[in-house]
Structures are given as C-alpha cells and as structure tokens.
Amino acid sequence: MLPSWTGDVKAFARNAAGPLEWPAVSLDQRPPRTASSLVTALVLVLIGAFRTQPIFAFVATTAVIISAAYLLWAIQRILFNPLDKPENAHMPDLNRRELILMAPLVAGIIWLGVYPAPVLRRMEVSAEKFVRQVESKSTVRTAARER
C-alpha cells in the first residue's frame, strides 16, 4: 500500500516534467511573461543561452537530462519498490503535526502556480534591467565578431 502523500509527490513530479507540447519559440522572440511549467521556462533559458554561450548551454542541457533521469529513478525507488524491512509496514503515514506543517507549503506552491503575478511584478523591473544589460553586451560582442 502506498502512503497518502504519494499522490502529492506524483503531482509535483508531473508538474516538473512539464507540458506535453513544447512552445513554438523563435530565437528572435521574447519569451512569454509567465511560463506554464518549470520545463517551459528552462527550455526558454537554454534557447537563449545557446545564442551567446553554446558550450555552457550544452553542459547545462546535459545536466538537466541527467537530473531528470535521476529524478525518475529516485521516484521509482521511493514509491514503487517493495518494503525491504517488515517493521516499516506498520509505520504510520503522516501525523497531525506533519500535516499542519506541510499544509502551508503545499498551499503556497499551488498559489504560486495558479497566480504568480505578485512575485513576477516584484521581479519585473530588475529582470528588464538585466535583459537590457545582457542584450547590450550581446550586441557589442556581435559587432566585434562581424569586424
């Protein structure tokens, strides 16, 4: 029998795995303001990184693939392996204190997933400044390469 929090872990892992369809993004387009999942945001970052630092982007992409494989392997071992110690079969699931501590964290994760605008608004000014900085350095490098 699986513990009651198994569904939560599977839901978080599925969300981390991302959408079934990749966004159609040209390298010349700006990414959307919000990403529908972690993978979509990661793909957009890696696409941008390939334009300026292809070697680092390749290393980062390889690390992401290895991390995803490890995540799937760990979830399989944690949730679907048989019990190796019979005394663990009678171990209680979550007690009331653990549920009370976990509830605000889960609520915060769900809230940020459904309505990320307050956090994104606070980051907008500094993110736009950072993008302008990177774009200006990128145009300087491109101009230097063309010479």
Summary tags:
70% helix, mainly alpha, 5 helices, single chain, 147 residues
Helix content: over 70%
Helices, by number, come to 5
Shape: elongated
Please give the alpha-carbon distance between the first and last residues: 67 Å
Low-confidence stretches: 17-35
Task: Describe what this molecule looks like in 3D.
By secondary structure, the protein is an all-alpha fold. It has a domain at 6-91. The protein is 70% helix and 0% strand. The chain is built from 5 helices and no strands. It has helices at residues 6-17, 38-52, 54-80, 96-114, 117-146. Helix 1 runs antiparallel to helix 3 (54-80) and helix 2 (38-52) packs antiparallel against helix 3. The longest helix has 30 residues, at 117-146. The relative contact order is 0.09.
List the helices and strands and how they pair.
Elements: H1 6-17, H2 38-52, H3 54-80, H4 96-114, H5 117-146
Helix pairs in contact: 1-3, 2-3
What is shown here, in short?
By secondary structure, the chain is an all-alpha fold. It has helices at residues 6-17, 38-52, 54-80, 96-114, 117-146. Helix 1 (6-17) runs antiparallel to helix 3 (54-80).
